[in-house]
């Protein structure tokens, strides 16, 4: 905890860092936001709910950025693996939080032109649940 206190930029800057780390982690850029989120919660447990909201929002917006980039790609024949996503639709994006496959799901949903509002809602639900589990572990 002493090391975390030494690195603490303060609650406002820390919340911003949670948002930025969560956003970037959900794009095609490499990185994770879990340690930033958990570390912030260790330092500022009183800000658990705002941190949860910002992490979820940032990660969802990052996923929707990947969705939008893929949506801009001309649509051709649906590859066999994308057909599974097309068949099950936006609810598949509840798994958008998952390492490795999450970015691919967001990109496939955009490329397939699945409805953006439904995609964002399912994506946000999955990401919220994942951060809630991290939050519970960090605060226990």
UniProtKB/TrEMBL annotation:
Keyword match Endoplasmic reticulum: no
InterPro entries recorded: DedA_domain
Chain ranges passing through the membrane: 15-40, 47-70, 90-112
Keywords for this protein: Membrane, Transmembrane, Transmembrane helix
Taxonomic superkingdom: Bacteria
Protein name: DedA family protein
């Amino acid at each position: 905890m002493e090391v975390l206190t030494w690195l603490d930029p303060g609650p406002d800057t820390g919340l911003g860092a949670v948002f930025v780390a969560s956003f970037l982690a959900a794009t095609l850029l490499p990185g994770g936001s879990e340690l930033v989120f958990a570390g912030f919660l260790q330092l500022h447990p009183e800000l658990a709910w705002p941190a949860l909201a910002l992490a979820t929002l940032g990660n969802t917006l990052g996923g929707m950025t990947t969705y939008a980039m893929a949506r801009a790609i001309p649509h051709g024949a649906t590859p066999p693996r994308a057909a599974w996503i097309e068949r099950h639709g936006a609810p598949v994006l509840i798994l958008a939080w998952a390492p490795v496959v999450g970015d691919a799901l967001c990109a496939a949903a955009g490329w397939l032109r699945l409805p953006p509002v439904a995609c964002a809602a399912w994506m946000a639900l999955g990401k919220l649940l994942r951060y809630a589990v991290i939050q519970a572990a960090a605060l226990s």
